[in-house]
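=== RUN LOG ===
request id: a7f3
mode: sequence -> structure
chains: 1
length: 208
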Amino acid sequence: MKMSMGRMGRRLLGLAAAGVALVTSTAAFAELGQPAEWEWRLQQAGSPVMETIETFHNWLLVIITVITLIVLGLLITVMVKFNARANPTPSRTTHNTIIEVAWTLIPVLILVSIAVPSFRLLFLELDIPKADLTIKATGKQWYWTYTYPDAKIEFDSLLACDEERTKCTAPRLLAVDNNIVVPVNKIILVETTGADVIHSFSVPAFGI
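=== RESULT ===
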């Protein structure tokens, strides 16, 4: 094995950096709030909360990549330098103060670097301003019922079948016969509940 561990580590780190750059690319592959073919990243952010979620996600990805490469480098080092053939007389060292301090402090620093932006994101998500409009979304087994309490309006929103979908450009399994209509640049409060089974109401581009 002629390549030194340092050169191998630098090459692995370079490959990881290239991968992270690809994953965190901000190029938009689809219209905001719409899915894209072969989409494997988070949807393009459409709100400050989602922008913060995306930043936090990318930061976690960097940490995970660095930790993975360090552990891989340590495993390769152990296999190469401390196997029975390369090291027939093993060391009987039982304590190393520097290493013990390092493997205590480094994980603490990593957790702090994750916790600080995580708490900031939680506080941002919990900061709910006064709403201009309230909508109640009631999940039913195969559709949603939406209620505008202030206007006393209620309607069902069912999944559009393929025959209906061919008449429009909406994505399959996401198109419905009745859409929610909300005012632009207003704060909307959506209260969710379920009439039968557990449901999850989501707007990925908004971080909901």
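=== NOTES ===
Residues 48-81 form the longest helix (34 residues).
The beta strands are 133-140, 143-148, 153-158, 188-194.
=== END ===
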